[in-house]
Structures are given as structure tokens and as C-alpha cells.
Specification:
The protein is mainly α and about 150 residues long. Helices cover about 40% and strands about 5% of the residues.
Amino acid sequence: MACACLKHIAGDRFIPYACGEPGETAREVDPVALATLRRASMRAPVPQPAAWDTFRRMDSPRMDFVILLDAGVAQRQPSWPDQPETAVWTLPDALDGAPPPGELAERTMVMLHGLRRRLELLAHLPLQGASPADIRHDLRDIAYIG
């Protein structure tokens, strides 16, 4: 959802990639996530999520920063070429407590709105000419936006 949302907000200003969790690769985008994106008039993410190891190779696309949406993943994050800045933007897990289908759709939409607010801030950061320390602080500060 984050990739689709960022593309919707910022167009081609960023090239987002989805990695899922270290050691796991989603075979497809979650159907509830796809339905939520459709309800929000956002296109499904392309390409599909990739394995973290895809981005660890020397010939992989260069990452300027990595945004993790789960603090638990941060502890398992592998090293990256040129070790990009990392920020953890923890969001409530829509699947927490195995909600009924109607509630799952609502929780997923709430999660998308929270993610969108943060990504809008990211898209409007003055990145050109900013120091790496300023970018690091801004990326990490966005995590505290409700």
C-alpha cells in the first residue's frame, strides 16, 4: 500500500520498492489491501514486492532511504549497499486480533490514511541540498505524525 500511495501522491518523484519482511516475499498483494487502494482511487503497486536480498546485491537499485512500517522488522533489517538512512514508521496492524471482515476493511483504510499523511510530508520535504543529517531527522520525525 505504501508504494501505491507514494506513487499516487508524488508521481515519479520517488521510485518506491516494497520488500515485505526480511526472509519473506509476498507472492501477491493482499486482497484487502488491493480493495482498500481501489476504494481510495489508487492504483495497485507495480512491481510486486521483492525479497530484501534483491536490494542487497551490488547491482541493485541504489536506495536513498528505507522506511520500515514495523519496529520488529528493524531488528532484522539486513545491511544495504551504501547503507541508506532508515526510519521506522510503525502503524497499527490491521490484522491484530483477527478482526471480522467488515472491521478489517475499516482498519486497513485507517492505516492507509495514516500512511498517506506521512507520505505527503515525505513528498514535500526539501530534499535537494539537504544534509544527510537533516534528511535523517526529518524521516524519523515523520514517524510521530498521527
